[in-house]
Please model this.
Amino acid sequence: MKKILLKTDHLSKSFSSGGALQHVLKNIDLELYEGDFTVIMGASGAGKSTLLYALSGMDTPSLGTITFGDKVISTLSQDGLAVFRREHCGFVFQQIYLIDGMSVMDNILSAGLLVSNDKKMLFSKAKELFAAVDISEETQNKFPTQISGGEAQRVGIVRALINKPEILFADEPTGALNSKTGLDVLNTLSKFNEQGQSVVMVTHDMRSARRGNRILYLKDGIILGECDLGKYRHKDMARHEKLSAFLSEMGW
Model:
């Protein structure tokens, strides 16, 4: 049986808009499992990113609870949530948010030093991760403005993994990339997932979604359905057809 990493109980999120209350997430009960590549899909405005931000401690729910291991994180203070994110979560966004005034390597080390004071260990870990995502030593010494978008997103993945997070959260990680560099990023995410890294990714892209073994479809703030695709295999047409049929059933 898979280990439960994180679970929600009646998770709800509402916002006030123009004097009216907008219910974005509605009583979501969800379990995320160790080693899964979970994909969250749905139309624009369905609540995908809101759900990801709540699960990762970047936002707090209006109602309900979120539990990581044996700790209820939804009741933590903002400082407590910041510590939770640093120690247990990694983040990859559509926008990379690297610090332009630091080299690529220093961007990674600065993130690692938020958790550990062992700079030698962090440097060794960074080198290992850079090798895994095919970022050369020359590129490691460049500044973010001197590298391509695809390289920057792979650097972003290294930054997300430097503190060995239990869960890697990705919000439309290929949304700003062209087809080839987007494929490189997806291959990188799949590679780490195959090594045991748990991934939760929001996407509206079918090609990206096929990388997941578990697809959740969000509509109007509820999980309308889910699909088990099993382990990712390259050029698996049956997988593509199963996902297409599921999304059609969901009204995609």
The mean pLDDT is 94. The chain has one domain: 4-250. DSSP finds nine helices and ten strands in the chain.
